[in-house]
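Annex B, item 7. Sequence and structure tokens for protein A, then protein B.
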Amino acid sequence: MISPIFVGHGSPMMALQDTACTQFLLDYGSKLSPKAIVLFTAHWETEVLTISSTNEVYDTIYDFRGFPDELFQIKYPAKGDASLAQSIGKRFEAKNIPVQFDHTRGLDHGSWVPLLRMFPTPVCPVIQISVNPYLPPAEQYRIGEALRGLDQEDILIIGSGATVHNLRALNWNATEPDAWAVAFDDWLAANMQAQNLEALFNYATEAPNAKMAVPRPEHFIPLYIAMGSGDPQRPVEIIHRSYEVGSLSYLAVSF
């Protein structure tokens, strides 16, 4: 059994840097032997949930600019699994969640950067899935619920985003995490560990500094999908916590 996780993928520079978070991801990945990985990425937004369905090696998408040339030379040659993608699609359809399939899109940096740091060499097929940031948290959670039980098949579910992701609020001179970002993550951690879904679904009005932490929810909602996919009988664990430039959160959670 491999528990679903949420990871903060931060800057694309994570692919090159040696930080507390990249060391955590390497250590965590070294202990896992997944048969497949299902990853929801904040950098693929669609109105209808879209599942990558291919048996080919994915292209590596460089969906960023202004970074060192070295970053654009990295390839992450993970393969897909069309049969597994179709099986996952049937799980969603059984819960009346519409889906569509994509046969050509590569892995964006919300996928390949954390995967590279967890598994420097691809170890298994990857199924990449889009997100719709305009669905409410309860619906994001329900999307995750459709995948419950995949962990029993040693399929690793990853929600890739960030709990605090406000690029306008980055503090480039910070030597310590910004207090407002820490307070938001503290609230999240406490309510996830208490499994207080009502509060979590209403984070926008109940969590401190919610508008600062989540100016737009595309990086935040993979957390709810990963949470929903976990066994509610298992305790929620905060498996990593660090920050860059004041408020960019690398909170990681196991469900």
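Protein B:
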Amino acid sequence: MRVAAIRRTVLTASAVSVALLVTGCGGDAEGGEGKEARGDAGAKKPVAKALTAGELEKRVVAEGDVTGHEVKEPGKKDVFEPGSVSAERAECEPVAQVLSALPAGEPKARVQRLVVHEAETAKKDLPSTDEMADMKEGEAEEAMLDSLDITKTLTSLWSYDADGAEQALATLRKAGEKCAGGFAMTADGDKQQVTKISVEKLSAGEEAVAWTVGTKQDGTAADTKVVVFRQGTTLAGFSSFNIAAITRGEAFEQPTAVIEAQEAKLG
């Protein structure tokens, strides 16, 4: 089932992002009195450089990195194109972007993966038509929902020059605070309402933001887990939803295994 189609037809949900860069400073090779006279104050710290797309490809989670999860490149129908998402209030634009698995700010390079986790109940074969006919009221529906207990996480790495990653994350955090009460947005021409932005606890990278973002479209409510953490000059973004939880109106957990695997790979 396409991720984009799920957003529009099963309910509302999205996907958001993340990455790494480690930079170091070499020492001055000069010696003698001249160096002592100048001191370290005269040395310039090299400007941190963004990782290239090729370098990000080596660091993004891959098949086999997350036990029990399928990792693959998303298709064009799985993601939103740049420019296809907007917020009614300009200050809320950063939230709308990462909710939709689009980058915060303007990264120099980016990569993305779709990570899928099926619960054990989702792996079971659905009852036959005859078996469903014999089920008690509500049992067939529960069996169908169990088959949809699938968590999909769009995982992104975005790399920036200098302090671009820090600035992008700071802007995103501020947007989450300003827009916590909700705002209207449009994704691929479909209007929806962000109803809440609830802060969650998360320890990842050098700094991070983590939210549960509630949305409503055509009267149907949904929650999306949005996480962005910074490692060096790279941001790692995650936008995650669970189809069964959305349909049942139940809470679901952050994609912890995916986040931890990505953090480890960046490290």
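Comment on protein B: Strands lie at 69-72, 85-87, 109-118, 150-159, 183-187, 190-199, 207-217, 220-231, 234-242.
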